[in-house]
Amino acid sequence: MFDNxxxxxxxxxxxxxxxxxxxxxxKLIKLVRAHKPKxxxxxxxxxxxxxxxxxxxxDTVTGVDISEGMLAVxxxxxxxxxxxTVTLAYGDSEDLPFADATFDAITVAFGVRNFENTEKGLRExxxxxxxxxxxxxxxxxxxxxxxxxxxxxxYFNNVLPRWGKLVxxxxxxxxxxxxxxxxxPDGEVFTALLKKCGFNETNFKFLSNGIVAIYxxxxxx
Length: 221
What we know:
Blueprint: H1 2-16, H2 20-35, E1 39-43, H3 49-54, E2 60-65, H4 68-81, E3 86-90, E4 103-109, H5 118-128, E5 129-140, H6 148-168, H7 173-183, H8 188-196, E6 200-207, E7 212-218
Parallel strand pairs: 1-2, 1-4, 2-3, 4-5
Antiparallel strand pairs: 5-7, 6-7
C-alpha cells in the first residue's frame, strides 16, 4: 500500500494537513534536541522528512522502513540535498537489525499505529536504545472536545479518503488512515503501554486541539 502511494505521499501530507505536519515534526525535533543525542534511529521513516530534519541537529540519523518505495523517494530527497549524515535502510520495526543499546534516541512520526504488534515494536525500540536514551513519538490521536471532534471525524471519514484516492489513485490507503487512527490506543493508554515495555518518565502532549500527540519515554540509565 505504501509503495503504491510513495510518489504522492509528500504532496498529500502537505495538502491534506494544510502544511501543519511540518510544524508537528519541528515540535518533536525540539524535544529531541533538548535530549542532545548524537545518533538517532528514525523508525517508519517513510520518505525521510523527520530524518532529514533531525540531521540538522545530530551527528548521524539512521532511517528504517518496510516500504522500498518510500525509501526510494527518501533517498532521492537526501541525495538532492547533499546530506551525508542520513542513512536509509530496509528494516522491520518489530525485528530491528541492530545490536542492543545502539542509539541515543529513537523517533517515529505517524508510524507506530501501523505496527502489526505495537508492544513488540516498542520493546524493540527499548532494546536498541542506549541506557538513558529517549524515545520520541508523533502520532495521530482523537480530539475529545466539541466542535473539533466532530469536524475532525467528518474530515477524516469523508474528505480525506476522497482526496487521497483522487490524487494517489489508491483506494485503500486513505481509507486505512482513519481506521488506523480510530484503532490506535492514544493518550494515557499509550503511555501505559510505554511503561509496560520498560520506559520511564513517560509523558504525552496533545497538539492542535488533540489532532496529534507527542509521546516521550526514557530508558533507565
